[in-house]
Amino acid sequence: MLQLLGTRTAALEDVTMVIRSVATWMVVILLAGIIAACGSDSTPSAPSAPSAVGPLKIGLLLNFSDGPAGRADDRRKAFELAIKHVNDAGGVFGKPVEVVVGDSTLDPDIAAEEARRMIEDAGVHAIVGPSSSANTLVVVERVTGPAGIPTISPSATSPKLTTLADNDFLFRTALSDTSQGPVLARVTREQGFTNVGLVYRDDAWGQGLFESFQQAWTGPIESVAVTPDQITYLPQLQQTASAGAHALVVITFEAEAETIIREAIENNVYDKFVFGDASKSPDLVKAIGGDHLGGMYGTAGASAPDSPSYAAWADAYIGEYGELPTFAYAVETYDATIALALAAQAAGGVDGNAIRDRLRAIGSAPGEAVLAGSEGIASALRILSEAGEIDYEGASATLDWDDNGDLRRGHIGIWRFRKDETIEELETVPFEY
Known about the structure:
Elements: H1 2-38, E1 57-62, H2 69-88, E2 98-103, H3 108-120, E3 126-128, H4 133-147, E4 151-153, E5 170-172, H5 177-190, E6 196-201, H6 204-216, E7 221-226, H7 234-240, E8 247-251, H8 254-266, E9 273-275, H9 282-288, H10 290-293, E10 297-302, H11 308-321, H12 330-347, H13 352-362, E11 368-370, H14 374-385, E12 390-392, E13 409-417, E14 423-432
Parallel strand pairs: 1-2, 1-3, 3-4, 4-5, 6-7, 6-8, 8-9, 9-10, 11-12
Antiparallel strand pairs: 10-13, 13-14
Helix pairs in contact: 2-12, 2-14, 3-4, 5-6, 12-13, 12-14
């Protein structure tokens, strides 16, 4: 009896093991079905699908409060034209790009706080700006670099930005002033001036352009740094003229330049001037008068001559606003905005590291060449959405960035004020590192 009982117990244990085995396999099969339904790849689905990411949010951080209103207005229009071209083409990830605007003023501390607000409160994924080199230094070091927010300045040209500790999040669509300084020195010599005085704004931009000019200059020079809050610049002007200078080289913002030039003329210190890019303003020649400044030369960043991409941009800008911008660095603002949008599309998401890592790729070979303008941008977005590669030929320059986020090549323009109080473009000088 006991033997029979043991046999039955063993049989029951065998049956139980079979049942458990069958149950285990049923669970396995069920889980396999669930995995198959969700997709056999265990990694998350790619973020390039429109439902998975976006919308991309780009901030515009410019100086709207200080200086000529037209300067910031021209750049804002160029920014808005870029956003229009992107959104008319369906946006990034199939969604319209959203915009946040911030006023940096000329105060670096305010600029940094505004950048922080745009990132932490408004949630921007990338920033176009700031305008000045001094603001850019502080904003990138304190805010956008640590936060991992790609930042492209369209007009910060100081060589100091090349070696900035930015975690590779700062790019520029304007050439470094290591290129403008030699051209400014050449123009000064070509006007017959061999001994000059020079005033420069005592900030990152002024110091950088002055040092670049000084390295290329071969004659006597008496230079003085000035600050924007001075009531008078006459003592500094007299100091720069003390060694018999033939002309004054002006490397200041427009507001200081107007006071400096007026005091120089009224006190018979100078009547000949040469200008850096920040003085390229119709408001300045109108304030001083064409009789005084007509025929005076200057330098500034410029687009490549005969560039089909610039031509497409110019046609679009005129079509939208009726005329080309008056002030410099508007087209560079357009390119900065477009580059961020295309890099985000190429990255397939709004992560700052991913956008940064695609910026160099969308602006250089290999890839299908695409131009500025509505058709060009639509084509670029379509190619990227299909996992293709592009080489965006910027309207201002080919966006071929080096390891520091600086342009490898571009152009410096030579211009002059006319007696009719307009600005005449004379020549573009190619530059390549």
